[in-house]
């Protein structure tokens, strides 16, 4: 009972921290907007400049909502992979699905340089890039699902997933070698990751796909807890191993592939947040971990995005750099303080 109260208090605290992180993210940016005007813009009150209201509703709020969705989705997909493979180094990218999304983006951006105009990026926009990335991730996801139906050993599936990632990464490297400087620069900028380029229509689509991934993940809570003690134990508990594995892979592919398609490959969050959550909540129960990683992932990516904006300046740092620079020391400190890793 006391532990349940502790969890309830922790979740309430996380929700408050999420609201505070959201407020800070919306308030700070390259344009200085007083806190009073920020609040008035949110509630429909009067502001000193209508341009501030436009900035908040058309730039800052969409970016903040995107950060929440992406942070939550990556953290959840990382938790699923670490539990399925019982590997603390597993993350949302181990199955090569995100690498497939990168290949789709690379073919769209750099294909014209390699294939002499057969593929053109003249119609380049965020929508076409998201579609190309989605197709790439779906193709790899389909290949992984087919392999999963043939392979019973989970570790073999992990290695095969890594091989898929290596193959797609090699193709991207070849494309990069032959492409021109301008196209290569466009791809590099995409690979930095970003949460600030989505319209409300794209955010709605992203939300819908992530919700499907979350629902599929909720259906696997019991199998995930059983997998912690090995597949033989899970089988003895009546878990349908193959079916559960399919659902977990599809949920991870949907989350990681969709996020990479819309925002580029954002590193660290999916690998580190599950560890951070286990250490803080001191549990491996997925009934607790699943909602907790959703909240922690959203909070951390919001804070990282705030730092990446370099408030009061016109510079924006790559969010991939900030997630690792800020998050890695925190995880290291927690592991040293706890002296053991919850897994």
TrEMBL record:
Superkingdom of this protein's organism: Bacteria
Protein keywords: Cell membrane, Membrane, Transmembrane, Transmembrane helix, Transport
One matching Pfam family: FecCD
InterPro entries to which the protein is assigned, alphabetical: ABC_BtuC-like, ABC_transptr_permease_BtuC
UniProt key word Magnesium: no
Transmembrane residue ranges: 61-81, 93-115, 127-148, 155-178, 198-225, 246-268, 288-308, 315-336
Subcellular location: Cell membrane
A GO term from the CC aspect: plasma membrane
Membrane topology reported for the UniProt record: Multi-pass membrane protein
Chief location of this protein within or outside the cell: membrane
This protein's record includes keyword Transmembrane helix: yes
GO molecular function: transmembrane transporter activity
GO BP annotations listed: siderophore-iron import into cell
Family: Belongs to the binding-protein-dependent transport system permease family. FecCD subfamily.
Protein name: Iron chelate uptake ABC transporter family permease subunit
Organism: Poritiphilus flavus
């Amino acid at each position: 009972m006391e532990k349940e109260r502790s969890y309830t208090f922790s979740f309430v605290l996380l929700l408050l921290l999420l609201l505070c992180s959201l407020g800070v993210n919306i308030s700070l940016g390259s344009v200085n907007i007083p806190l009073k005007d920020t609040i008035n813009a949110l509630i429909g009150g009067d502001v000193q400049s209508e341009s501030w209201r436009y900035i908040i509703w058309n730039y800052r709020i969409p970016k903040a909502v995107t950060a929440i969705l992406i942070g939550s989705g990556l953290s959840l997909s990382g938790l699923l992979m670490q539990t399925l493979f019982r590997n603390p180094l597993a993350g949302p990218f181990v199955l090569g699905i995100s690498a497939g999304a990168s290949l789709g983006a690379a073919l769209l951006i750099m294909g014209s340089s390699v294939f002499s105009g057969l593929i053109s990026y003249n119609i380049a926009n965020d929508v076409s890039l998201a579609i190309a990335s989605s197709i790439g991730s779906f193709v790899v996801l389909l290949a992984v699902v087919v392999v999963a139906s043939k392979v019973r050993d989970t570790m073999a599936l992990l290695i095969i997933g890594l091989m898929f990632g290596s193959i797609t990464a090699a193709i991207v490297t070849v494309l990069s070698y032959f492409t021109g400087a301008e196209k290569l620069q466009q791809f590099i900028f995409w690979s930095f990751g970003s949460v600030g380029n989505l319209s409300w229509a794209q955010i709605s689509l992203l939300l819908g796909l992530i919700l499907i991934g979350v629902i599929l993940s909720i259906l696997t809570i019991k199998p995930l807890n059983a997998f912690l003690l090995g597949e033989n134990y899970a089988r003895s508990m009546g878990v349908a191993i193959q079916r559960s594995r399919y659902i977990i892979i599809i949920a991870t592919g949907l989350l990681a592939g969709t996020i990479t398609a819309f925002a580029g490959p954002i590193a660290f969050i999916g690998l580190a947040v599950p560890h951070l959550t286990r250490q803080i909540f001191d549990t491996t129960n997925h009934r607790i971990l699943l909602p907790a990683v959703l909240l922690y992932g959203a909070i951390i990516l919001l804070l990282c995005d705030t730092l990446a904006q370099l408030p009061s300046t016109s510079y924006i740092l790559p969010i991939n750099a900030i997630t690792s620079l800020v998050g890695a020391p925190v995880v290291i400190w927690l592991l040293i303080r706890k002296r053991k890793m919850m897994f």
